[in-house]
Amino acid sequence: MYSLQEENELIRLARQGSTTACEKLLTAYTGLFKNMRHRYAHTPSGKLLSDDMQGILQLAFMEAIHAFEPARGINFAAFLQSRLHGAIYKAFKNTCNYSRHTAHPTLPDGDDHFAYFDNLENHHPSPERQLLAREKLQNIVKELTAAEKELLHLIYVRELPQKAAAQLLNITPQAVSKRKRNLITKIKKLA
């Protein structure tokens, strides 16, 4: 380990961009990194983050170098340890939030993992089905009269109540109801 003055000088040089100073500090705190990595390796979140743990710790190390102020009289090792704990805690928290809001399907045992995804239900129509449905709708609308199209537009596009549609068409609400019933019957026959 280095004396307090040597360590502060290395931190100052590392802040200025000296890779040699960073490497010396990293080497000096390798044991702390290993300890932090292994401390959480057996937790569920630790297992999820095992591949990223080294990068998380090194990033926290660089942030600690830039945030450390020797004038406060705090030992860098204690400051670094608190920063590393904070970074790991933040990573665990993000992992738990991601897992809580994300469904991860479990794959069946066996060699063919791709067959699992082939058997999943798809509730979205294929583009071909959407195109066919659109063409069918266009053909149905072509068969309707102008009055029927206007009634469809008022009730289903503008979402007006039947009373408001009756006022716009200058007919009674009962007549709108009857026309709507007849229109639905006609559309079902055309479909």
TrEMBL record:
UniProt keyword terms in alphabetical order: DNA-binding, Sigma factor, Transcription, Transcription regulation
Keyword Cytoplasm: no
GO biological processes: DNA-templated transcription initiation
Domain of life: Bacteria
Record-linked Pfam families: Sigma70_r4
GO MF: DNA binding; sigma factor activity
Keyword NAD: no
Domain RNA polymerase sigma-70 region: 142-189
Protein name (Swiss-Prot/TrEMBL): Sigma-70 family RNA polymerase sigma factor
Source organism (scientific name): Selenomonas ruminantium
Source taxonomy: Bacteria, Bacillati, Bacillota, Negativicutes, Selenomonadales
